[in-house]
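Researcher: Go.
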Amino acid sequence: MITSDRLDRLIKAYDVRGVFPDDLDTEVARLVGAAFVTVVGASKADGGPGAVVVGRDMRPSGPGLVAAFAEGVTNLGVDVVDIGLASTDELYYAAGSLGLPGAMFTASHNPAKYNGIKLCRVGASPVGQESGLREIRSLVEQWSVDGLPSFDGQPGSVSERDVLNAYAAFLHGLVDLRAIRPLTVVVDAGNGMGGFTVPAVLSGLPLTIHPLFFELDGNFPNHEANPIDPANMRDLQAAVIEHKADIGLAFDGDADRCFVVDEKGDIVDPSTITGLIAVRELAREPGSTIIHNLITSASVPEIVREHGGVPVRTRVGHSFIKARMAETGAIFGGEHSGHFYFRDFWRADSGMLAALHTLAALGETPQGTTLSGLLAEFIRYVPSGEINTTVKDQAAVVAEIKTAYADRPGVELDELDGLTVTGQTPDGRTWWFNVRPSNTEPLLRLNVEGPDQPTMESVRDEALVIIRGGV
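Model: Structure:
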């Protein structure tokens, strides 16, 4: 029997993820496979396509988990198309192009002891708590006691399919790089799947590439494949300076996120890249809608409006962004966390596609133009970065912040996701902060932005006094 406590640790807001084999083992994978095809209606008897596509990252536990998942799928008469080693966005490509539900075995940026499963429906539509994960959990819990339901028909089969080159060709069809000038590029794959996909996608371009940690190794011997932590960007920053590179790119473990370093070795805020790509997409389709989450820089909606687009603000999290993209027909969406979403990529996120846009934008400039120079117009505010504080009562602390700011003149509050407080300096410049409870830990996450460093620090420190009073 798989206990409710164990499933609480495993079933997250957007995926299945836990320590292997303590939480996520082959029995869980087998049950999730069977529950997944049941919930998404993959069987031909349910009007589905009769197959699912499966990929995995480089973690040593991946092959065994994939085999167990495939057993759960095929035991219910559904076929498995196994694409083998893949980035998460490569799995989304396979699910979208083949018209199949998909399962990607990865723990993304988490340390080596973890593994997980990202699930999607036909067309790479996400499976989260509100779109199937809750039902999958219920079936896993039930079947761990009662056993899988009987199936009298022909078991499904497992076939292998290589989609890497087709994935690379599809991305090149979305971003025209034929006219770019030669660039020197350092790429840090962090021993993750970028080391597998980058050679296929960037080959044949006028790029001198200096690879860092391209060897696939799920034990992450050099640093964690988590570029949102500045400590994991130091090797890339140093290599950009050493090689006098034009740009540095860093991918997380499953290569669905991309972070950028400029020619000076400075980390570029993902909001800046969101603004850059938004302008490129608006040039292609004027008047389009651009999605941004509520802790993306205030520069993003400003830039979108200036270029004739329609900015739409949404909650943090890929399922919310993808849903709003579908509702609004948005051409592009960006998050502060380095996730970038593209309508023409089944509204899925692709770190590689974001990298291609950034390379194209720089490569189309005259010789001598630097990345920092190109991006200067997109940088308008000073961010604090995310500050996490452990508190005893998340709701009580958020309520205290709300009370503290509710009656201040010129201050606006909204509760789209946590609490966002927006105000202005005496000279009319905007500052804001957002505080959100973690879904999985007793934490409050604070993000602050101001028009300059002193304003940001003042707003940050005032909010932290209240938050840390609730520690």
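Model: DSSP finds 15 helices and 22 strands in the chain.
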